[in-house]
Amino acid sequence: MTTNAVAEERQAEGVPGIAQDQEANVSFARQPVLNRDNMLCAFELKVHQQPVAQASEEPAAADEPSSRKPRRSATEAIIHGVLQADVRAALAGHPGYLQVTRELLFDDALRQIPAGRFMFELPPEIGADDQLIARVVELHARRYRFVLDNVALADETFARLLPYAEAVKIDMNRIPQAMLPKFASVLKSAGKLLIALGVESQAVFEQAFNLDFDRFQGYYFAHPQGAAARKVSAPRHALLNLLQLLGGEPTVAQLEAELKLNPVLVMHLMRLANSSGLAIGRKVTTLREAINATGTNRIARWTQLLLYADGRKVALEDDPLLQLAATRARFMELAVERLPEAGRHETDAAFLTGVFSFVDSVFGGSLEQTLNVLTLSKPIRDAILQREGVLGTLLTVIEALERGAWADIENGCARLEGLQVHDIAQMGLVAAAWAGVADRSAEAAGLERIED
To answer: Region entry Disordered: which residue ranges (predicted)?
Structure first.
């Protein structure tokens, strides 16, 4: 796919492009926060600030202006980055959690951040002297909300900041297990929102759920044991049959007949066809019109993604597993396009690698067995199972980005020609925006009865 074609597709789907800021030294990753219904309700922004190159000491040339634009400070760069369109779009309408340092908290530019869109996380090392408490009180009066982050014990800093915190994020892996039930009970009685941090297994989720936690941060939902309790969106064999049909050159009549066997997929297809990006000037009311408006390539991609969809017919942008799959797949595609000699075959293979990289979470059994059922090509299988080749390296990089493991991203970039940490993070935001926009922009009228 050419650069122009990619830009046109991105514009049609209503997502921002990759905007490179030459002064930028701040990168963001996002991590999902789920509610008690296992639906997305927020994202935490993980911030990475790369070292700023030293300013040149050479005198300005005769034709250069006598004064240069001053470089942003470290805190100003973070605030500027948070306000960018790509970051806002990546949140997909959900609130954001942003960890603040002491320097960031005292920067007056902080008030440019909308109080209603972000909650500020106060880390344990921030301290709680009188000056900081006064600043928190000032911002609290301006309706800014605070979260006590990474809590594992109730020390003096915790006690002094607690009255101004709306929520408490408890590290499930560090807090002494003997004190956890009583600690959670006291905080709930005090009216605090409880967020379980580090939830990477179904067992930890169930422990926090039974202790009446309100929010859960971690990737337990992407593991087979976490997906076991999910309702399936449609019979898996029906989706696989449709994917096999799409692998050839089906007629509209064949697609229509196969799609009618999958009402959930039809519902989302109608919404997609009526979305602002694909609208044909009037409301699509028949399945045949939806097929023609959407195209087989997009139908194939959303069929692949709907393997992950929850069966409760929730909005796709609130489904954490589908959003993770969509973001990972789109990132893989965008990243391959930035590498030398990438063509349509490479971008399609990259998308498939991302979308099927944790398909065992919905099928159960081993990942290798599931990939055998899907009959994927050897490079895709090797990338998923062994992390081999460029696709394997990119898959390792996007997994590191999901964790906010910046050192691992740097190691991966060393094996990828022309890609830096900031590029990876920026493509991650663009991919997240793409994943979150397709269903949100659809008209509710698209859910009306589908006529034959």
So the answer is: 1-22, 52-73
